[in-house]
Amino acid sequence: MERKDKKTTFDYCYNRNDWKLREDHFLTGKYENQNIMTENILLRDSEINPTDEVLENALGKDIFQVYEELIKIITDVEFELKPEWNFYKDGKAWLCKVTYKKKTIFWLSIWENHIKTGFYFTEKTRLGIFSLKINEKIIQNFEEAKTVGKLFPLVLDIDKKRQLEDLKEIIKYKKSLK
């Protein structure tokens, strides 16, 4: 029995801008819109845990180095975040939930040619994003993003180490929220 009225974990993690995941594209891992390129999420096999070796094979050497740096940054003393990989049956893929104590800071997933992170903010907390010293394109995309329920998604597609500076600023802000 289909449940068209219920949103999946993937709906909450990956709706962004003017595109939505649709069930027919969801099963293939491809999401299309006239305004964006097709993206493919990786790590779709529940039997294969996302070890460093698996992640390096999926991402390639260069982007895997970015991933290693990202993990080093978030688990270091400054942030003390905990990444936790789980396979989500509703999305048919491995996602990494990154938390501080019991609070979810962001979600991370592995895509063809990049790492995707998703932060979610309320109406009240979203305003702080506009005062952060981050790339203007991130702010513009965030401003144009459609809400997911009552939350405002901020999605980063990371493929270069220099993008980690913006990620750090957003993490600092998200951690500071009550």
- What is the share of helical residues? 25-40%
Radius of gyration: 16 Å
Largest sheet: 5 strands, antiparallel
Q: What is the count of DSSP helices, taking H or I runs of 4+ residues?
A: 7
- The N- to C-terminal Cα distance equals 39 Å
Structural class: alpha+beta
Number of domains: 1
Strand content: 25-35%
Mean pLDDT: 84
- Contiguous uncertain segments of 5+ residues: 1-36
Number of strands: 7
Strand order of the largest sheet: 3-4-5-6-7
Order of helices and strands: HHEEHHEEEEHHEH
Gross morphology: globular
Topology readout:
Layout: H1 9-14, H2 23-26, E1 30-33, E2 36-40, H3 52-59, H4 61-75, E3 82-88, E4 93-100, E5 103-111, E6 114-121, H5 123-126, H6 136-144, E7 152-158, H7 164-176
Helix pairs in contact: 3-4
Features:
178 residues, alpha+beta, 5-stranded antiparallel sheet, 7 helices, globular, disordered N terminus
Structural notes for this entry:
By secondary structure, the protein is of the alpha+beta class. The protein has one domain. Helices cover 33% and strands 27% of the residues. It has seven helices and seven strands, in the order ααββααββββααβα. The chain has a five-stranded antiparallel sheet with strand order 3-4-5-6-7. Strands 1-2 form a two-stranded antiparallel sheet. Helix 3 crosses helix 4. The N terminus is likely disordered.
State the gist of this model.
The chain has 178 residues and is of the alpha+beta class. The chain has helices at 9-14, 23-26, 52-59, 61-75, 123-126, 136-144, 164-176, and strands spanning 30-33, 36-40, 82-88, 93-100, 103-111, 114-121, 152-158.
